[in-house]
Amino acid sequence: MESRDRVPAAGAERDTGAGGDGPSGDGAGPRPRRTAVELAALLAFLAASALVAWLGSQATISNVTGWYASADKAPWSPPNWVFGPVWTVLYTAMAVAAWLVWRSRSPNRRAALTLYGVQLALNLAWTPVFFGLYPAWGSAALWLALGIIVALALAVAGTVLLFGPIRRTAGLLMLPYLTWVIFASSLNLWAAGNN
Length: 195
What we know:
The protein is mainly alpha-helical. It is 78% helix and 0% strand. It is built from seven helices and no strands. It has helices spanning 2-13, 31-64, 80-103, 109-132, 134-137, 139-166, 168-194. The termini are far apart.
């Protein structure tokens, strides 16, 4: 009987998704505190994404109407107004994906979130290199940016592979981001070869 009593306690350590009660199942567990911590964590992941987006936009704003306006762009390049809404959705989805992994009790979550942080840093590095350095470095900046975005695509693919087994939804939320980064890589390659 004693080992049976331990099973629910061990099960309570696992992430059961939204809702759920304490180990006793009577709602007397420390759920309000946990909910507050989880909400704060979600806001932190969203804030980190928003910060990366805002910092990237600082390099973009001054150059998208500058050198980039007259640059030779890929024929499949969408209009500039598309990028803002797409990135907003992608940054939100990736923050939620990271939060879902953070909420899990998987032993692999640390490695998954570390790689998530690496890809976020690469994401942050790409924009100022591509947009900001071109006026000073010319096409060398675009080739350097291509190296960064290829590394970013690999890091995002790795993140998808780590997130998926922990939380399937988290892995799926990262797939549109991976697709967009690969698409953006093609735009970067064209720009590097033609400017």
